[in-house]
Design a protein that fits this description.
The complex is a heterodimer of chains A (506) and B (259). Chain A is mainly beta. Chain A is built from three helices and 26 strands. Chain A has a domain at 1-46 and 88-139 and 485-506. Chain A has a 22-stranded antiparallel barrel. A three-stranded antiparallel beta sheet of chain A has the order 2-3-4, with no helix packed on it. The radius of gyration of chain A is 27 Å and the shape is globular. Chain B is mainly α. Chain B is built from 14 helices and no strands. Chain B is elongated and about 85 Å long. The termini of chain B are far apart. Classes of the chains: A mainly beta (506), B mainly alpha (259).
Chain lengths: 506, 259
């Protein structure tokens, strides 16, 4: 049995065991989400030409005979450049099934499962379609007043990111909401992806260096407190390679919030990388609401440092952090009209790697203003201007959207944007239009259909023949079917029906 | 735009509307919404004059038991007040971009109105499947600036190889050959010779197209050029102690370790 199919047997056994319980004794909620996308676009393809076959261009560089600017490394016999790639068409289709089962005669016991199947109907190998079958989550949960337990494949999202694992989560609440003590651990899944870290599907570039050769063991624990206006959470988390004396990560993190008054709150957090003896990300924010609650102001500071597991070499390349300060404001000028603005300035730490040959930006800023008109005779409008200037890339855009909701069953949204998006390290001063139409329609109770068409029309301003076009159309169709043990759920308030887990045990 | 997407996402989940302006009766002063729990816990007699159980359940989907003190609505007595779910004032203007810290610090606050599936609509393990989520419409076309500048921490939700590099590969942007494909970074004539600053500032962007072997052609003690990639303050001893296997990617023996 291949590694990829190893999970099938235990899942099949678990499913058979569940099915053997009389269904009439169970409650269940099922959600089937199917999506199809059709698109085609032209990417780029690297090409090379003999150095003797290029000619000098008007600005001092070299050009191929048909006008493509080339790069000729010193001493190399060939020059390289990018041509328009082949037209790529893709038709990815995915189906995601979510199920929650309860009512096994044990109060507080539930089973959760999210599985996904995906393929590309045009065999283009569209990203995300491998592996074809993925078990995103599958766990048993038991929850009572003071304790919660999960067993199986699940994940936690916290300051350290998306952490998936095959294992267990345990939480004690000895004093109600005031204190939570929790821990989780098991076999790690990849960072932000529901596959084991050793899966070849995590290595699309085919670099043997980039895959851990052993499973990773995750262990984490922490506590959370809720003491009136002051709440917080502290977390310790580490991963080690199984059977080897090798740490993958070891970090601690904390988040806190203080409700100083109904109008003023302060929140913040930070993480520290014990393995590398470095502070990671940190942020602090002050939020102020005006007395009439029509306006909100936020001032924030934050620090960002990229994080890499120790099985890769990237952390040894000494990536640097940036520090940022910014603020935002929102004002409800009148009922149905909201005006928003935000801005942030950031500057990188000294990289100690600058050369006189290449100048680069070390700081940047981003800002936006927008306004929304809500619910004017079933219409909503939103428009904004956004600009980001920074190292590597910049963008400037103006966008608008209108939403029409003639009934609770139908939602139609049209949007459009015009943007400029230059890159700092590549001649790519692209001007782009994007426009889209989206329709959400509840065709029947438990059946929702979606259709989405989006177009991108781009003009790239280059002086050479590599004036490639990325223009394209993308079409999406979706169907979402939800059903459950209707004998009891139909009598519940619609709000409760939105809870796929069923009623949360208290 | 983000509000529009929120509406679409909510509609997909069959949720009630977001951003609906609900008339508040004169007897509910501004700010009443966030502090009504204290009054309701003391007595619900006053509440019951106008409200039925549905009023509470419109928002309190994570803790429906709070509604038990109020009578059920009936066709004959549906209640005087019609409540529609809406975000509190603290959620005004881009709350999705700043909810992380308060949500992590005090998830109990979130649980008053939200359940786990609300989080999973964005923080889902199949992020990037095409369903509306965190990013505004057409974010694909503007993501280079957001990614280079790390407006958000992309890798907290997206795997840099399986998500970023895989898509860039489809577009022909990755360095999948054995050479560095000179020519892509053509806005800087000597980019290869002076890329260090850009790499240290935006290494997560580099690895969205480059594999380790691209860099190790020059930055490895096993190669011919042997350019040292380690910056000032690099603590080789600490990393060797924590994971000596990483050192062996570039060094014949672990530097400073036993032969």
């Amino acid at each position: 049995m291949t590694r990829r199919r190893k999970w099938i047997l235990p899942v099949a056994v678990a499913a058979a065991a569940l099915w053997s319980v009389p269904l009439q004794a169970q409650g269940y909620r099922v959600r089937l989400d199917t999506r199809f996308q059709s698109l085609s676009f032209r990417g780029v393809a690297v090409d090379s030409v003999l150095r003797t076959a290029v000619t000098g261009g008007p600005t001092g560089g070299f050009l191929t005979a048909d006008g493509f600017a080339v790069s000729c490394p010193e001493g190399a016999a060939y020059c390289t450049y990018f041509r328009p790639g082949p037209k790529t068409g893709a038709g990815p289709v995915s189906g995601t099934a979510s199920a929650t089962l309860w009512g096994f005669g044990v109060p507080g016991l539930q089973f959760h499962m999210i599985a996904r199947a995906a393929t590309d109907l045009r065999d283009a190998g569209w990203p995300g379609t491998e592996p074809a079958m993925q078990l995103l989550e599958g766990y048993a949960a038991y929850s009572r007043d003071v304790v919660s337990l999960k067993l199986g494949r699940t994940h936690d999202v916290n300051r350290l990111g998306w952490v998936g694992f095959d294992g267990a989560t345990l939480e004690f609440r000895p004093f109600g909401r005031a204190l939570r003590v929790f821990g989780y651990g098991g076999r790690s899944l990849a960072r932000s992806f529901p596959l084991p870290v050793t899966s070849a599907d995590l290595n699309p570039l085919g670099d043997a260096l980039e895959l851990p050769n052993r499973d990773q063991i995750l262990l984490a624990g922490g506590l959370g407190w809720f003491l009136g206006p002051f709440a917080g959470r502290a977390l310790y988390q580490r991963e080690d390679r199984r059977g080897a004396n090798a740490t993958v990560s070891e970090r601690i993190a904390a988040d806190w919030s203080l409700e100083a008054s109904p109008q003023v709150s302060l929140s913040g957090g930070a993480d520290y990388n014990i393995a590398t003896d470095e502070w990671g990300k940190a942020d602090v924010a002050l939020n102020v609401l005006t007395e009439d609650r029509r306006a909100r102001f936020t001032a924030n500071g934050r620090r960002y440092r990229p994080y890499f597991d120790l099985w890769s070499i990237w952390g040894a390349f000494s990536p640097v952090a940036y520090s940022a300060a910014g603020g935002s404001a929102a004002w409800r000028a009148m009922d149905g009209l909201e005006v928003r603005a935000r801005g942030e300035y950031y500057t990188f730490d000294e990289s100690n790697a600058a050369t006189p040959l290449v100048a680069g930006e070390s700081d940047g800023w981003r800002a936006s203003v927008s306004a929304a008109v809500l619910r004017v005779a079933n219409w909503s409008f939103d428009a904004g201007y956004e600009r980001a200037i920074g190292p590597g890339a910049s963008s400037q855009s103006i966008e608008a959207a209108a939403t029409y909701r003639p009934s609770s069953a139908l939602l139609v949204t049209v949007d459009g944007a015009r943007m400029v998006r230059p890159l700092e390290y590549r001649f790519n001063d692209a001007h782009l239009w994007s426009y889209g139409l989206r329709i959400d329609f509840e065709a029947a109770q438990g059946l929702r259909l979606t259709a989405d068409a989006r177009g991108y029309s781009e003009e790239r301003q280059r002086d050479d023949a590599a004036n490639l076009s990325w223009s394209q159309m993308r079409f999406n169709l979706g169907a979402i079917i939800e059903f459950g043990s209707s004998s009891d759920s139909r009598r519940l308030h619609p709000a409760i029906l939105r809870i796929p887990e069923g009623r949360r045990p208290q | 735009m983000t509000r529009i997407l929120s509406v679409a996402a909510a509609a997909l989940l069959g949720a009630a509307s977001w951003g609906v302006t609900t008339p508040v009766l004169a007897q509910h002063e501004p700010g009443w919404l966030t502090k009504h729990g204290t009054d309701a816990r003391k007595s619900t007699e006053t509440c019951a004059v106008c409200h039925k159980r549905n009023s509470c359940l419109e928002c309190h989907i994570g803790m429906p038991e709070v509604a038990n003190a109020l009578p059920l609505a009936t066709p004959e007595d549906p209640g005087l007040a019609q409540v529609q779910r809406k975000p509190p004032a603290s959620h005004q203007g881009g709350f999705r971009n700043r909810h992380g810290t308060p949500a992590a610090a005090a998830p109990q606050n979130c649980a008053v109105c939200h359940v786990r599936s609300d989080c999973l609509s964005c923080h889902r393990p199949d992020g990037g499947s095409g369903a509306p989520g965190f990013h505004p419409a057409a974010f694909l076309s503007r993501h280079p600036a957001a990614a280079y500048g790390r407006e958000n921490s992309c890798s907290e939700c997206h795997n840099t190889t399986a998500f970023c590099a895989d898509c860039h590969k489809t577009a022909g942007l990755v360095a999948s050959g054995r050479t560095l494909r000179g020519g892509y970074h053509d806005a800087k004539q000597f980019f290869l010779a002076g890329h260090g600053k850009a790499a240290r500032q935006s290494l997560e962007s580099c690895v969205a197209c480059h594999a380790e072997r691209d860099c190790l052609q020059c930055h490895s003690a096993l190669g011919t050029r042997k350019f040292n990639p380690h910056g000032p303050g690099f603590d080789a001893a600490r990393l060797r102690q924590r994971n000596a296997e990483m050192c062996l990617a570039c060094h014949v023996t672990v530097p400073g370790g036993e032969e």
